Write a sequence for this structure.
């Protein structure tokens, strides 16, 4: 099973590297697979690589689902 998380690009470092915000944690990732990504965009991050882009509404909905799962008893 794979897990990919939505993250907002905070800053582009160069054409293939960016800093993203993952729920308050900032991390450097590769954006080589999504060269159209820019600061402010949401991307799906898997093992340090952006593998796609998504709109803000979809990102927020996904993050809300993760938050709901975290609150659920197991």
């Amino acid at each position: 099973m794979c897990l990919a998380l939505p993250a907002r690009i905070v800053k582009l470092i160069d054409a293939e590297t960016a800093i993203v915000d993952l729920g308050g944690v900032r991390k450097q990732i590769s954006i080589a697979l999504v060269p159209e990504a820019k600061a402010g965009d949401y991307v799906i991050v898997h093992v340090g690589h952006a593998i796609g882009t998504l709109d803000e509404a979809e990102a927020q909905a996904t993050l809300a689902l993760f938050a709901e799962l975290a609150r659920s008893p197991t």
